[in-house]
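Supplementary Methods, section 5.1.

A reviewer requested that the exact input to the structure prediction be made available. We therefore reproduce it here, unchanged from the version used in the analyses.
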Amino acid sequence: MSDELRRLFADGAVPLALLRQRAHNQRWAEQPQQVIPLTAADPDFAAAAVIREAMVDYARSGVFSYGPPAGLSGFRKAVARRLQERGAQITPEGVIAVNSAAAGLAMVCRHWLRPGDEAIVADPVDYLFAHTVRGAGGVPVLWKVERHAPLHLENLEALVGPRTRLLCLCNPHNPLGRCFRLDELEQLGRFCRERGIRVLSDEVWSDVVYPPATFTSWLALPPDLAANGAVVYGFSKGFGLAGLRIGFVAMADPDAAAALLASSDQPSTVEGVATISQVAAEAACSAEGQAWLAAFLEHLQARRDQALAALDAIPGLSVHPPDATYVLFARLPGRQLSAPAPEPGQDHELALELEERRVEALVERLRLRHGVAVVPGSRRWFGPAAVGHVRLCFATSEGLLAEGLRRFAVGLGEETGSGPG
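The structure derived from this sequence is encoded token-by-token as follows.
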């Protein structure tokens, strides 16, 4: 990383005054002045200069006309090139611009699911999967996925019923940081194709993968498997463009993509993507944008290692190094926080609820008493398997991260007796 790029991620490069005005979703703008938020997965740094310059140039013209329903030609070509560089067999005609990765999930679910259809969703995983399945009238069916364990296709088989229509895959996985291998994806692909189950692959984290781990897009699988799925991506994680609401859905079959687009509200202009956001994303795909991303990834790897070292020093806390993403999913010390064994007449659901409440209360005390905000591993955010955990984001500067982690360690120790007090 050059000195010029390194300065972009230094302590002084974090625009705190602007973040406190603009960074919502549990972050700086929604926290008391003294709180450091290691919460929503959104970086604390300004976007790459090439992105900002492209937006200014576009805006200076003063022409803000409607764009094509599927997206600007330049945007679709740039996305197709990036996917092809990752081994995908894709053309620009298979790319649809969408208003964020979340909107892409919803678009695909509405197209492929009918009321009462079932979709297999990982547990734990980001809440948007279950949310968009339910929004389409579908029923989420939870499949336990762990950081290192095999995928257990026999367990997956037990979840398949006559109404199973979709497998929702988060690759790389949020919050576990797991990057699924090629052979695992091929196994899942064959399993789903043989049973008539489509695959929705959320690849929003695919830019944030740490060597020696490697990322394989669903669209890079053999053609018969790739054609049975759709890929969703957003420019929020790798490029810090969450507020621009820009992403895409990509499919190997252009006709399938055209049918998806026709089933949406984008041709009617009820939905759609701002053209200036597409211009920004196209710039992110440029050589200059990719150079910025490479420098950002180098910074993130150093912050990941910094965070792991700090968390490993906390007695009783357990965290696995992620292969991807810039979040850590830590299991809290169990002896103080684990739910009591159910009494006669109590069920597992009650014990789970008690544990969930305990962790949420701890997280709130950390925020208000110790000045650090993290995300509780609640069922509403990640599913039942997340209970007993917290998620921490490390996409900030070295100094801010060090102070946030110090507050977390001290606060955890004072609140539970499990760390330095």
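The radius of gyration is 21 Å. These observations are discussed further in the main text.
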